[in-house]
Amino acid sequence: MSTKVLETKNLSKYFYDPVKFQVLKEINMSINHGEFVSIVGKSGCGKSTLLYLLSTMDTDYDGELFLDEELVTGKSDKELAKLRNENIGFVFQFHYLLNEYSVLKNVMLPGMKLGKFSNEEIEHHAMEHLRTLDMQEQALKMPNQLSGGQKQRVAIARALINNPIIIMGDEPTGNLDKKNSDMVFDIFQQLTVDLKQTLLIVTHDPDFANRTNRIITMQDGMII
User: Fold this and answer.
1) Which helix (H) or strand (E) holds 141?
2) Distances (CA, A) of 202 to 40, 54, 71, 90, 209
3) Separation between Cα atoms, residue 202 and residue 90, nearest integer Å
4) Residue 195 DSSP one-character state
5) Are strands 222-223 and 214-219 parallel, antiparallel or unpaired?
């Protein structure tokens, strides 16, 4: 793995509703392997828009995006879907667990979709991640039997299942109280220390941001 996990060169984004409006202006940034980085800024400054570009979910932009020093700009939707599933783990403000599946199955799903390992191996990996997050006792429960903090821990286990090179979070503590927010932060920090996991988190929480390795501050579509 290279030292640069993520890099952008002159990344710009426009909205066209109802008139052309530049929402991101020539963003140049890089995230190194093992860094825990937060993106902060007022509502509407472009934080979440930037994260969607970095995650390859939005491909309508100018400039270049590199993942693990490979240019991903211009790849097909099919190539990007595979790239995302293999390399990027996601943790959102809402956990997006599927209520019809057990905790264990929810964690396994991205691994089953990727299809690199047998279901038995994926189940083994899923249980290991649940154990790391102290959620192994809840493995056979359904999501609606869990607390908010527990659901977010399951979402983190799911984000880890394919051993991504980076985990991206969009306000992952936005729905949690102080105690659970601190718990999620501690988990993220543990991942960077123990697994050298790279993390890029958009947050409104200054306490959270101030404890990360590096803060990227945005204003009016630019990094300041």
Assistant:
1) none
2) 6, 12, 23, 12, 9
3) 12
4) S
5) antiparallel
| Residue whose entry in the numeric block shows the structure tokens 């089953």 | 112
Residues with Cβ within 8 Å of residue 137, at least 6 apart in sequence: none
What CA–CA distance (Å, rounded) separates 208 from 141?
A: 30
Helix (H) or strand (E) holding 153: helix 148-160
- How far CA 199 is from CA of 107, 136, 159, 175, 192, in Å, comes to 19, 23, 11, 19, 8
Q: By three-state DSSP, how is residue 26 classified? A: strand
pLDDT, tens digit (0-9, with 9 covering 90-100), for 72-96: 999 999 999 889 888 999 887 776 8
- The answer for residues whose C-beta is within 8 angstroms of residue 91's C-beta and 6 or more apart is 152, 155, 156, 159, 167, 168, 169, 170, 172
Strands 166-170 and 70-71: unpaired
Q: For the chain, how big is the Rg over CA atoms in Å?
A: 17
Q: How far apart are CA 142 and CA 161, in angstroms?
A: 19
Q: Look up the pTM and report it.
A: 0.89
26-35 pLDDT per residue, tens? 999 999 999 9
